[in-house]
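FW: tagging you since you asked about this chain on Friday. Here's the raw sequence from the shared folder, copied in full. Didn't touch anything.
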Amino acid sequence: MPTKEDLKALQSESLERKVRITQTRIIEWYKHYNGQVYVSFSGGKDSTVLLHLARLCFPDIEAVFIDTGLEYPEIRDFVKTFDNVTWLKPEMRFDEVISKYGYPIISKNVSQIIYEYRKNPKCAIVKHFDNESDYIKKYGQRFSLAKYIPLRDSDIPISHLCCHVMKKKPAKKFEKASGKMPILGTMADESQLRKASWMKNGCNAFNSKRPISQPMSFWTEQDVLHYLELTGLPYASVYGEIIPIAEFEGQMALNTMVKLKTTKCQRTGCVFCGFGAHLEKEPNRFQMLKETHPKMYDYCIREENGLGMGKVLDYIGVKY
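HL: got it, structure written out here
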């Protein structure tokens, strides 16, 4: 099994070397399934790079876009500029998902534990909220969710199921109907869950219950930005320009490998998702949404005829 040291070693490789390794993983996946594969294409910068790398190897490879209704309009417009893209739709809208299951906030792990606790307060999951439990004593305070007890006991509906309903379910349905295996642009440094997944399976999870290729797992956001900058590859306009962080801060960049940053959106996943919002520096995703897409912001925040995210963000202390 891959180790943390293996991941660190790959992450420290040059961008040129990462490109070669990624394309090797794509070729391995493609050949293993006799070309019956597809690229999961969200229209974001990561999957844009992934699709480019995949089509350099196999120009006819299919891309699949899941139209959740949670994308920036610029993302949808950008996806429309590509050929050979299959559009899928989930069976439920986001407002229906949060009404039935709850809001995605804090993180997928925290939301899931709160959701399961509420279904059965006497289940084993309660150990996560008890600093004196054997589980916390064994694994340490970093696994304690005691600080989220007020949120757990609030009247805010909370769930981790949004991604499953709106993205994974339509993707799995497509895979069953087409027989094609997915290639995703997710990266290990995006979350502990994704790092754990790489540690278990590496880039190509041939033997997992749902085989998935994640050939860019060892890339970082900086790798993606440098690749876009160096190649001149088009990307969605919602990101703005890619510039050195030093320049963004009003200073002069001293070398070409300085850290890069987009002048507008830094992330373009599901616009209304609350995962990780409490960790963002200002202006956070919702403050930026207010400036760039005021109508979407208003629908997101207001309770009447809206998603009611304002109440949720108030509760977890996220300014908007």
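FW: The chain is about 45% helix and 10% strand.
HL: agreed, and Residues 251-256 have pLDDT under 50 and may be disordered.
FW: great, closing this out.
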